[in-house]
């Protein structure tokens, strides 16, 4: 292990040891590990754009000292030092920032690098919310670890209540067969176990690829043509880029194309497990309601 990395880690641990004593705080992460800190974290690193956004949602934005590429919300996140991308972390830079807590993405961060962080004695809290209540739960647990319970728990409840209201309004509407495109090359979608798959169900949609075994399956154009969805929704490379939908305009036999039900949803509103998913879900439900009205 590089000597610089060890030196930085020792400095981080000494810093934690010299902080004023407060009551120990503990929370269990999404892989079942209990993470305990001697006092609320003051220097937190978020290793995915979603993790950083969740930290701000939990009221801990002022305590974030490191983010990764594409951490662009809230705008303050763009002013925090970046330690690489979620798939390739700059560990030396991360350790030099002396985090006393690291928020990892279970299936997004390289596990060997996360293991190295743990080996250096830096607490790691792993997250991967798979349903709406889990998003609220993560916010509450992050707020506990950061000592920002009042703001974090209020935001968690706002999200929980908002999603329940959407479900009550839309989940029993006439089903709309839906294809959600999560990526372009290779063409990828989600199954019913994915958080976006749960948005489809909440809005009264029927995910035409919902029963596939993989969480994020790779498919081909032929599979979409065979499934013949009534509506196609997609994000894209950017918050206003509709290019992914032009792919389907060439297929006049598709029900979605014939009806004009090719809908764009800004990806950060639907593809990050954060409170902004409430806004994305509202938009998603509105698009399916448009499709119903065109029958």
UniProtKB/TrEMBL annotation:
Signal sequence, renumbered to the chain: 1-23
Domain Fe/B12 periplasmic-binding span(s) in chain numbering: 43-295
Taxonomic superkingdom: Bacteria
Matches recorded under Gene3D superfamilies: Nitrogenase molybdenum iron protein domain (3.40.50.1980)
Pfam families: Peripla_BP_2
Record keyword Signal present: yes
InterPro entries: ABC_Transporter_SBP, ABC_transptr_periplasmic_BD, Vit_B12_bind_prot
Biological processes annotated in GO: cellular response to iron ion
Family annotation (PROSITE patterns): FE_B12_PBP (PS50983)
UniProt KW keywords: Signal
PANTHER family in alphabetical order: MOLYBDATE-BINDING PROTEIN MOLA, VITAMIN B12-BINDING PROTEIN
Protein name per UniProt: Iron complex transport system substrate-binding protein
């Amino acid at each position: 292990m590089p000597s610089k990395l060890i030196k930085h880690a020792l400095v981080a641990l000494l810093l934690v040891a010299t902080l004023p004593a407060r009551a120990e705080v503990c929370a269990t992460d999404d892989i079942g590990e209990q993470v305990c800190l001697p006092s609320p974290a003051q220097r937190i690193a978020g290793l995915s754009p979603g993790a950083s956004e969740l930290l701000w949602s939990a009221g801990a934005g002022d305590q974030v000292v490191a983010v990764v590429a594409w951490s662009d919300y809230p705008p303050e996140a763009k002013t925090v030092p970046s330690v690489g991308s979620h798939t390739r972390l700059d560990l030396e830079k991360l350790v030099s920032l002396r985090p006393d807590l690291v928020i990892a993405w279970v299936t997004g961060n390289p596990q060997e690098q996360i293991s190295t962080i743990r080996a250096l004695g830096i607490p790691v809290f792993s997250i991967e919310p798979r349903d709406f209540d889990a998003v609220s739960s993560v916010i509450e647990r992050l707020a506990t670890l950061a000592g920002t319970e009042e703001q974090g728990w209020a935001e968690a409840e706002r999200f929980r209540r908002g999603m329940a209201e959407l479900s009550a309004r839309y989940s029993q509407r006439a089903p709309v067969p839906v294809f959600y495109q999560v990526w372009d090359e290779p063409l990828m979608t989600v199954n019913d176990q994915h958080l976006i798959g749960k948005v489809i169900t909440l809005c009264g949609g029927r995910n035409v690829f919902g029963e596939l075994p993989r969480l994020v399956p790779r498919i081909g154009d032929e599979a979409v043509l065979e499934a013949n969805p009534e509506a196609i929704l997609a994000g894209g490379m950017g918050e206003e880029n509709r290019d992914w939908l032009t792919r389907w305009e060439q297929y006049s036999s598709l029900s979605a194309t014939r009806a004009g039900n090719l809908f764009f949803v800004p990806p950060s509103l639907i593809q990050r497990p954060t409170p902004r998913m409430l806004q994305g879900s509202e938009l998603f439900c509105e698009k399916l309601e448009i499709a119903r009205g065109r029958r």
